[in-house]
Amino acid sequence: MPARTLLTAGITGVGMSFPERRLTNAELETMVDTKDDWIVERTGIRERRLVERGVGASFHGAKAAEQALEHAGLKATDIDLIIVPTVTPDMLFPATACLIQHMIGADKAWGYDMEAACSGFVFALQNARAQVESGFARRVLVIGTEVMSAITDYTDRNTCILFGDGAGAVVVEAVDPARVGIIDAILRVDGSGADLLKMDGGGSRMPPTAESVAAKAHYIFQEGREVYKFAVKGMANITAEIVQKNGFTGPDVDLFVPHQANLRIIEAAQRRVGLEDRQVGITIDRFGNTTSASIPSCLRVALEEGRLQEGSLVVATSFGAGFTWGSVLLRWNAPL
Ligand code: UT7
Predict the structure, then answer these.
(1) Final residue before a domain boundary, out of 144, 164, 179
(2) What's the pLDDT score for residue 335?
(3) What is the DSSP string of 36-58?
(4) 243-272 as b/e, with b when 16 or more CB fall inside 10 Å?
(5) Is 259 a known active-site residue?
(6) Which end of the chain, N or C, is less packed with Cβ atoms under 10 Å?
(7) Which entry of 25, 60, 118, 298 is annotated as an active-site residue?
(8) How far, in Å, are 11, 82, 132 from residue 77 at the CA level?
(9) What is the pLDDT of residues 229-281, one digit of tens each?
């Protein structure tokens, strides 16, 4: 039997795409009983982007994927696997991965959607890494794309101020092992938190009916305060764990890319690991919480702001519905 080569996966391209339409806090003040000050102070969000009604997650997902491919210097036909983490697929089936494959002309790819809520991107990145390092897939697109506005109740001030639409994508492929790539991942789920952040309707347990629509079961439900407590602990602990486990300390981290759910949750994790503001990627002010799109789009913003260098040590951490949470540690390998 031929000896198996050891492969190291890394990110070699990143892209994002957001709708033009901005929903500002001032506009939300006219829709629900809320105040700009409250939203900024409690969440850090100033505005979020929304698609036009009828635009599915595939639309910005395909655009983000095309930008990631261009960044990696690849064509769509170079891709052999497309993984789409999303809670807002165009349809329950077929998979949004299939729709994007067709839109971008990735004629040699297979693909699938996966759902781990706000941790979707981090979980999918580990999926992609495993596929590449096993030698089964050579080049993988991971596309976090969401139309959160499709499942948001714009009469519920508890949730409608939080979420936004958009997409972020990365290319994962084998890199020179000397350049390291993805170093480690720690991933967790705890279904005991399932009822604290969920959408009850539309699945097999509660198919859509006139009653389920009237009961607003097809919108996001969140016990914000409870989720907040778990999120602070989960994000801070797992970020500290992956940094320490791999022999690093706070000052070694060049960029912490947290899931963008709440600025106060991000700051708690930042303090726990001992990071300065300049080490933390923040996009929540302009995009709100875009679920599986938040980490890849934050990476793209960091790249455009010149905050990533060859070999930068990056920690990406998420927490979301499920509960799901996880952290990935990597060296930056994509062109600058
Ligand atoms: O992304 C996946 C994971 N999700 C998260 O990580 C989200 C975690 N949770 C949070 O980020 C926060 O809990 C929220 C931002 C959702 C809420 O902030 P909070 O500081 O936990 O507020 P709260 O829910 O404890 O509400 C405090 C008060 C309440 O009034 P009373 O009961 O004290 O009179 C709410 O009714 O603020 C009120 N409130 C609002 N006031 C103005 C709730 N929403 C609003 C609003 N505008 N939009």
Answers:
(1) 179
(2) 87
(3) HHHHHHHH---EEE-PPTT--HH
(4) beeeebebeebbbbbbbbbbbebbbbbbeb
(5) yes
(6) N
(7) 118
(8) 18, 12, 17
(9) 999 999 999 999 999 999 999 999 999 999 999 999 999 999 989 999 999 99
In the residue annotation, 237 being an active-site residue is answered as no
Is the predicted pLDDT of residue 2 greater than 70, yes or no? Answer: no
Q: What type of residue is 186? A: I
- Within this chain, do residues 160 and 231 fall inside the same structural domain, yes or no? no
71 is catalytic: no
| Domain count along the chain | 2
At residue 36, φ and ψ (nearest 5 deg) are: -50, -45
In the numeric block, which tokens belong to residue 307?
Answer: 């905050």
pTM: 0.96
Domain boundary among 148, 179, 210: 179
**Same domain assignment for residues 96 and 174:** yes
Residues 67, 15 contacting (CB under 8 angstroms): yes
Q: What pLDDT was estimated at residue 178?
A: 85
Residue 175 sits in the same domain as residue 220 = no
Instruction: Please check the confidence at residue 1 and state whether its pLDDT lies above 90.
Output: no
Domain limits at 277? 182-331
Mean pLDDT of 13-28: 98
Which residue, judged by its Cα, is nearest atom 19 of ligand 1?
225
Tell whether the model's pLDDT for residue 199 goes beyond 70.
yes
Pairing status of strand 81-85 against strand 139-147: parallel
